[in-house]
From TrEMBL:
Residues 356-470, 607-749 form the Sodium/calcium exchanger membrane region domain. It is a multi-pass membrane protein. One of its GO terms (biological process) is intracellular calcium ion homeostasis. Residues 132-182 form the Inner membrane component domain. It comes from Burhinus bistriatus. The lineage of its organism: Eukaryota, Metazoa, Chordata, Craniata, Vertebrata. It comes from the Eukaryota. This is VNX1 protein.
């Protein structure tokens, strides 16, 4: 749903390709300028570089023109949309695909315009109406809705005074059995026919109806309602009978059809059909409603067309939005209300069980995450840089932090260490999933449409460097030969570093901690022989916890202060001193027909209110999820590691995954990769330090000491990600490698034994 890009003029198509330096600048131009559509109009005019090729070659004798940076120009409909596009490329800002402003109607495609139509447009040739979607309508709604109209028609005829509405229901019974290719029209009745007791049309109308070519034949006779002369429609006796007996039944039926069809999304045309019938057609006087079948050669009807439908199913309704909100997020919003009512009103599980409430609470997090993301993007696009950075840093990780903190509080109250292990598993699962699964899936889906996709390796390198610092900082390259033999030959030696950052306390505890095992068995029956031990862990509380309180805990606090500082330095580097590495320029020019004035979906105050309400509901849903997760952890045969790494880690990130896929389909893999990298960086540099600092004010069982499985999984993921992103281009095969490694790690977590304390 994007207007096609205009061809760039020849005078700005780039520098001449004469010398080797010129050709190198052109290569940089092609690599860094290969960005896809961002949801608004995008073209790639080549602006003159800040340094000419000749001066570049004079400074670099080897004719490597690294300073020839060519920016990609993005043209947005308005200033607010331009700010949103610019924020997508800023480190630390939430990447958002959907528009935060209303798009000009003339720039919409015909497919999208049809989605928002009122089903009152007559086509010249609609084609065959016998389709699979129309047959599905007949099986789901048409037969019983038509039968209901027949019953209501019979009831109206029995009342005698409701006979006009009985005839109307009889006509509508045939219409709703197969409404495709038919039209409901509002006709005007002359005053001469509205006299007391008249039940036949006037001579003028009868003759006009018989010779009307627009209606395709004679106008059928209509029974006039039994009412007083010159009285309003709703003072008629037939109207009173209709409102008391017939209309309520049909409104309930159409309400059920409308709700069901709306939830199925692709059947939204049926929902519009039912809603318009209940609110418009059934409230008109029966003599003003005319049901006709359109002929293929028939010219458009005169008068007002109320309903005209050709197809019951439209697969493009996944693009449909209500006030800027995607239809799926709208449909999932009632789930939040159901979850809160069941969770807090049925505290004794009389209506539903704990697993059902846990599932509902987890599913409710998805639409709330969408609303939080939409609110953050709207506020950032309408505010200055400082306020946008504060909002993104404050609420960017609110979804995950809300769940983690509520889980830690519940574990502390119950004295159950299992909740802390679940939080660690969820943190690791988010890190591994955003490093492997999110970019890998985007590469696979985007690679199906585009043979090879390129991205800005310099901008991706900033996030990768911060992530490598927080997960696998280069403390050295001395590894054991056995461990080096486990890795493929293509893994370079500099990447074989000892885990640092958030895993530094874990490394420290394994070096200085005392290994304690639950039970050991002598395998060789020799006191000096080999022993097989189970449930082994490093004890940090030896000698009244001297090692932990004197050495490990200060190290944890130090790391928790240094990592956010590194995150702030990364923000300053990418947004202030080296912002040119993103090569993005928002043009001031607009396409003809575009509106310069922004019509925002959500104002700043509205977005702020929605953000606060969504955060409040998120806290309630997270509280319900942690409240009802205990039976699942206790009775489930699946490892608690697997539950934390998959369900608790990736479900809140589904809106981000959808955004990444949409960017990849538009050949904008840079933003797809940045989505995963930014989430992973926030996990290590913001979420974990916040959890550690939270334990200072509210003591919990959470310690920054991870299991070996979490350390190795995170390290392998970051190493593989850095290797894949080195050349700045990828295809679906490399994406498949990342996805396969992710599923292998999931298999390891699935078969791993439960952590100690669970």
């Amino acid at each position: 749903d994007v207007p096609k890009a205009t061809e760039p003029r020849g005078d700005i198509d780039g520098p001449r390709r004469g010398s080797l330096c010129d050709r190198h600048c052109a290569a940089i131009n092609n690599v860094q300028g290969d960005l896809g559509d961002l949801g608004c109009h995008l073209h790639r005019p080549r602006v003159q570089p800040a340094m000419s090729p000749s001066s570049c070659c004079q400074q670099h004798s080897d004719e490597v023109c690294e300073s020839c940076v060519v920016k990609t120009t993005l043209t947005a409909e308005n200033v607010v949309e331009a700010n949103k596009l610019s924020n997508n490329y800023k480190f630390g800002f939430k990447k958002w695909k959907s528009h935060v402003t209303a798009r000009p109607w003339e720039d919409r495609s015909e497919i999208v315009k049809e989605l928002y139509s009122d089903l009152n447009v007559i086509r010249g040739s609609g084609g065959s109406t016998v389709t699979c979607g129309n047959i599905l309508y007949l099986l789901l709604f048409g037969w019983w809705l038509s039968f209901l109209y027949i019953l209501v028609a019979a009831m109206m005829f029995i009342t005698v005074v409701g006979a006009p509405y009985g005839r109307l229901c009889w006509d509508l019974a045939g219409y709703f059995l197969w409404p495709f290719g038919k039209v409901i029209q509002k006709v005007e009745v002359p005053k001469s026919q509205r006299a007391l007791g008249t039940c036949e049309p006037s001579v003028e109308t009868s003759s006009a109806g018989e010779t009307s070519a627009l209606l395709g034949g004679a106008m059928p006779r209509r029974w006039r309602p039994w009412c007083w002369a010159d009285a309003g429609h709703w003072q008629c006796a037939s109207a009173v009978v209709w409102l008391c007996l017939g209309y309520p039944v049909l409104v309930l039926a159409h309400g059920l059809v409308c709700m069901t069809a709306w939830l199925l999304v692709v059947l939204i045309p049926v929902a519009k059909l039912s809603a318009r019938t209940a609110t418009r057609v059934l409230l008109l006087p029966p003599e003003q409603v005319l049901v006709r079948r359109l002929r293929m050669t028939e010219v458009p009807l005169e008068g007002e067309v109320i309903l005209c439908c050709y197809h019951a199913v439209n697969p493009y309704y996944y693009k449909y939005a209500v006030d800027g909100i995607n239809v799926f997020a709208v449909n999932l919003l009632p789930l939040v209300l159901v979850t809160l009512v069941l969770g807090y009103m049925d505290s004794h599980n009389r209506l539903t069980s704990s697993p059902v409430k846990f599932t509902l609470a987890l599913l409710s997090i998805m639409p709330l995450s969408y609303y939080i993301g939409m609110a953050i993007a709207s506020i950032s696009a309408q505010s200055n840089f400082a306020l946008g950075a504060v909002v993104n840093a404050t609420f960017g990780s609110i979804t995950e932090l809300t769940f983690y903190i509520t889980a830690l509080i519940k574990g502390s109250r119950e004295g159950n260490r299992c909740y802390a292990e679940i939080v660690k598993s969820a943190l690791t699962g988010t890190l591994v999933g955003c490093v492997l699964f999110v970019p890998g899936l985007c590469m696979v889906i985007g690679g199906i449409r585009h043979q090879e996709q390129r991205f800005n390796s310099r901008s991706a390198g900033v996030s990768s460097a911060l992530l490598f610092l927080s997960v696998g900082g280069e403390l050295g390259t001395r590894v054991s030969p056995g461990f080096r033999g486990l890795l493929p030959a293509w893994v370079p030696t500099p990447y074989l570093s000892i885990p640092a950052g958030v895993f530094a306390p874990t490394l420290f505890s394994k070096v200085y901690g005392k290994l304690v095992c639950g039970e050991c068995h002598n395998v060789t029956q020799n006191p000096l022989g080999h022993y097989l031990c189970h449930n082994c862990h490093f004890d940090l509380m030896e000698n009244n916890g001297t090692l932990y309180y004197s050495h490990v805990q200060p190290l944890v606090y130090t790391v928790s202060l240094l990592l956010p500082a590194a995150y702030l330095i990364g923000l300053f580097f990418t947004l202030k001193t080296h912002s040119h590495i993103y090569d993005i320029h928002i043009s001031d020019c607009h396409m003809p027909g575009h509106h310069h004035s922004a019509v925002v979906h959500w104002s700043r105050w509205r977005a702020l209110v929605i953000l606060l309400l969504s955060t409040l509901c998120m806290s309630a849903c997270a509280d319900l999820a942690t409240e009802h997760i205990s039976p699942i952890l206790t009775n489930s045969t699946i490892s608690q590691y697997f539950i934390g790494v998959t369900v608790l880690a990736m479900v809140p990130e589904l809106p981000e995954i959808v955004n990444g896929i949409q960017f990849a389909l538009q050949n904008n893999l840079s933003l797809s990769i940045e989505i995963g990298n930014c989430i992973a960086v926030q996990v290590c540099m913001l979420q974990i330090p916040i959890l550690v600092l939270f334990t200072i004010f509210y003591p919990t069982n959470f310690t920054l000491v991870f299991s070996d499985l979490h350390v190795y999984a995170s390290m392998f993921s970051v190493v593989l990600m850095n290797y894949i992103f080195m050349d700045g281009k990828c295809d679906y095969f490399q994406g498949t490698v990342l996805v396969m490694v992710y599923f292998i790690l999931l298999a390891v977590y699935f078969f791993a034994p439960s952590p100690s304390g669970c």
